[in-house]
Amino acid sequence: MATQTTSAPSSPQDRRARTRFGSGPLRWRQSRTPGGLGWILPAFALSAGLIYFCIGYLGYVSVLPWNWRPPRPQAVQGLDSYVRAFNDDLFWTSLRHTLVFFVVTFVVQCVLGIVFAALLHSKVYGGTIFKVLIFLPVVIAPAIMAPVHRRVFAVDGPINWILQHLGLIQVDATGNRDWTAGVSWVLNHVGLSEVTPNWIQPSTALWVIIGVQIWSSIGVAFILFFAAMGQIDPEMMEAARLDGAGNVRVLVSVVVPNMKAVIISLAILNAITALKLFDYPYLVTAGGPAHSSEFLGTFIYAQLFGVSSHYGYAAALSILLLVLALVVSLVMSVTARERGPRRVKRVRV
Amino acid sequence: MFETRSRTGRLVLTAVLAVMVIPFIVPLFTMVQGSLQGSGWGNYATVIGLEGFWLYFRNSIIIAAATIAIVYLLTLAAAFGFSKLRIRAKELYFWLMMGALTMPEVVLLTPLVLLGASAGLIGTFWAVVIPLVALQLPFTILLTRSYVDGIPDALFEAARIDGAGTWRQFRHVLMPLARPMGVAIVVLVLINSWNAYLLPLVLLGQDQGHMVVTQLPNSFKTQYTDDQTKILAGAVLAALPTVIAYIALQRHFERGMAAGAIK
Predict the structure, then answer these.
(1) What is the pLDDT of residue B225?
(2) For residue B120, what pLDDT is reported?
(3) Which pLDDT score, from 0 to 100, does residue A107 have?
(4) Which residue has the higher pLDDT, B218 or A43?
(5) B21-72 pLDDT, tens per residue?
(6) Three-class secondary structure assignment of A118-153
(7) Which residue of A has its CA nearest to B154?
(8) What pLDDT score does A6 carry?
(9) Do A167 and A259 fall within a single domain?
(10) For labelling, which of A129, A283, B196, B212 has a CA lying 20 to 30 Å from the CA of B94?
(11) Is B167 in the A-facing interface, judged by CB distances under 8 Å?
């Protein structure tokens, strides 16, 4: 806190001022504090100025019947573009993909992140190497990795190579790959008969994107959990162990409850990432095949730069995306404030 | 965390970890191994020898450097203003900025394309740098403001009593004290601007010599009609700068990126 070190004894008045203005200068001192509008104005004009201007312009374009290249039409059309979005199956498909993507990446990140962090807090050999390997994908651009992931999931790629050597895939005389009898039997009986070892196809393309995203983002979750675990009071775990709790019990009953702040941060982060998603679906699967991995980002992009330029429709979709992003982050931060533990609010990394 | 009392226990834990890490190594391994197939290191020679190869890196360096410099200065100035100076309706400005915190860049696409085209900005570095800066600022300011809030007011008052004006307080009190935060900002903005794909793709134009490193692998795809080995060699080269930077500055990267996650 900013005002802790003032030597002057604080009167009730400036205590009120302090709470009112948060960490700002105290009111009695304000006359002596220099004005600072000029200091925030460049950042404010550039950031808020540009962004709010863009939103305003979006709102304007979204009510125009502008579905071809410039010039901009003069007449206003109204809310037709929004109506079109709500009646568009692809819009709902993209939303459903976004939701599935969010739930799966979030859950996997939490589970894997906690396990990785717990393992690396134990006495393992070569901890730094593992840490680097887990975190490395975070710093490499998705766009750069996209051709690599296409290769990884190719029919003759390493994933199928591994499955083949595990005896799950067989290659026939013509070089076709298919599941071995046992695997197809299992898949048929759990209702996944259309899944073949050709990964970039309608039934699996979304899961390829999810897998790729998990690959590239687990490092962040891991680092957050790792830092948070370092702050757990060792005495607490000591006490649990004295009471006879084993490793797994300590992890579930002592460690995980202390991870609440990180889990909430990850929920917000992943929700926003899911709504923003563009690079991987665009470059790995091109939103397809047959829109099976379409997300809002690729959908809007296709409206802008597709066969014809549906500017008005793209603008309406952008506004809807924006509203979603705002609602999600508001709901999540309010929930975080209500449910989150007040004490361990900020994780120091 | 997991208690082990024996050497065997440690080995078992390490083995479990190694098996779990395998899926994370597969893409990295595929990338390097694939890039060395066919004509081996010759793939790299071909890629580097291509006309305009260095332009990808030059363009990315210019964009990243400009974005970092602008974000750094504007963030420190704004954090100083928000935290230590008197501004009418300060919190209103602050929350207006924070409203832009979760802005997906796709949302900026339509207006930027339409307005940039009419302003003749498309194809210039500013067309990419300005939106990149605008998208980073809300978050870096949020981060830095709470950091500057932790610096005692008394330090600034002492400087003022000694006759330092606002500028000197900023330059000689705030800037040195905010340096640890500065490293996090630089790392965060570096990764976000170096790895940006969508904004340069749309706003820089698709001509040869107007592309950034993230477009490198994909543009080889069109040039080489799917010569996988060259594409992968291009990917390795494009990824190398960030990988080296990360390994050299490991701790700073982990801190910076993790700070980026806690909003």
Answers:
(1) 57
(2) 77
(3) 95
(4) A43
(5) 998 999 999 889 888 887 778 888 888 877 778 888 888 999 999 999 999 9
(6) HHHHCCCCCHHHHHHHHHHHHHCCHHHHHHHHHHHC
(7) A6
(8) 40
(9) no
(10) B196
(11) no
Q: What DSSP designation does A177 have? A: E
CATH number, position A294: 1.10.3720.10
Which residue among B105, B221, B257 places its CB closest to the CB of A138?
B257
Is residue A175 situated within a structural domain? yes
The string over A177-205, giving b where at least 16 C-beta atoms fall within 10 Å of a residue's C-beta and e elsewhere, is bebeeebeeeeeeeeeeebbbebbbeebb
B129 to chain A, closest Cα gap in Å: 11
Average pLDDT of chain B, as a whole number: 84
A318 and B137 in contact by Cβ < 8 A? Answer: no
B101/A contact by beta carbon, under 8 A: yes
pLDDT at residue A231 in the model: 82
Q: pLDDT averaged over consecutive 10-residue blocks of chain A (349 residues)? A: 42 46 48 74 88 88 75 74 85 92 94 91 85 90 90 84 81 75 79 76 88 92 88 82 80 83 86 88 84 88 81 88 87 71 46
Tell me, yes or no, whether A129 and A235 share the same domain: yes
pTM of the model: 0.84
Q: How far, rounded to the nearest angstrom, does the alpha carbon of residue A42 sit from its chain's CA centroid?
A: 30
Nearest-Cα distance to chain A for B243, in Å, is: 7
In a domain, A82, yes or no: no
> Does residue A334 lie in a domain region?
yes
Based on the fold, state whether residues A300 and A171 are members of the same structural domain.
Answer: no
Cβ separation of A122 and B1 shorter than 8 Å? yes
Do residues A161 and A283 share a domain?
A: no
Q: Length of chain B, please?
A: 263
Q: Domains in chain B, start-ordered, CATH in brackets? A: 36-261 (1.10.3720.10)
The dihedrals phi and psi of B33, each to the nearest 5 degrees, come to: -65, -45
Handedness of CA A163, A165, A166, A172 (dihedral sign): positive
One domain for residues A177 and A261: no
- Beta-carbon separation of B109 and A304 below 8 A: yes
B158 touches chain A (CB under 8 A): no
- Tell me which residue has tokens 């993230």: B214
Q: What is the 3-state secondary structure (H, E, C) of A329-342?
A: HHHHHHHHHHHCCC
Q: Does B257 touch chain A (CB under 8 A)?
A: yes
The answer to whether the CB atoms of B87 and A35 lie below 8 A apart is yes
Residue B61's pLDDT is what?
Answer: 92
B218 and A283 within 8 Å at the Cβ level: the answer is yes
Tokens 């390097």 sit on residue: B32
Quote the number of domains for chain A. 2
Residues A246, A109 within the same domain: yes
Query: Are residue A140 and residue A219 in the same domain, yes or no?
Result: yes
Q: What is the DSSP code (8-state) at residue B162?
A: T
Among residues B189, B200, B58, the alpha carbon closest in space to that of B126 is found at B200
Structure confidence at residue B114 as a pLDDT band (50, 70, 90): confident
Which amino acid does the sequence have at B27? P
Domain that holds residue A172: 154-198
Residues of A in contact with B262 (CB under 8 A): 224, 265, 346-347, 349
The answer as to whether A328 is a domain residue is: yes
The pLDDT tens digits for B184-205 are 888 889 888 998 888 888 888 7
Q: Which residues of A touch B110 (CB under 8 A)?
A: 58, 61, 300, 304, 311, 314-315, 318
Query: What is the pLDDT, as a whole number, of residue B72?
Result: 93
DSSP state letters, B178-195? THHHHHHHHHHHHHHHHT
User: Does A244 share its domain with A274?
Assistant: yes
